[in-house]
Design a protein that fits this description.
This is DUF3224 domain-containing protein. It is a single chain. The chain is mainly beta and about 140 residues long. It is about 0% helix and about 70% strand. The radius of gyration is 15 Å and the shape is globular. The protein has an 8-stranded antiparallel β-barrel with strand order 1-2-3-4-5-6-7-8.
Length: about 140
Amino acid sequence: MLGDLIGEEQAQVTGQRVVRSDHGLPPVVETSFTGTGQLLGVTVNDMGSYTGRLRPDGTLYGEGQGVIMSPTGAHASWQGGGVGRFTEGGGTSWRGTIVYSSDSPEFADLRGVAGAFEWEVGADGKAVGKIWAWK
């Protein structure tokens, strides 16, 4: 069951590259981004990257990792994975799970929590996301 909303973010894609293109398989594309938002009520900057691969059914499979930091130096790393689809406007829509690791007291409530996320990425590279605690 999804729990409380624990985070919201706005981000911008900063780069993309093909990291692997095996003969006969769809290429793997890496996307990097930076963002700002709130996580557990703390203002954060987020920097991360994720890879996406087109699956035979037309959906996308993705995995990512990154780091968040508060203005006071609190920090956490994250890893996530999920599925995506292309949108009519040329962007992508993602759903998946995320887990955090942190020794910072500000992010202590993330320990042992799996998050469920929704991300919408526009064709212009602007993105918005929400994260709920998965209880």
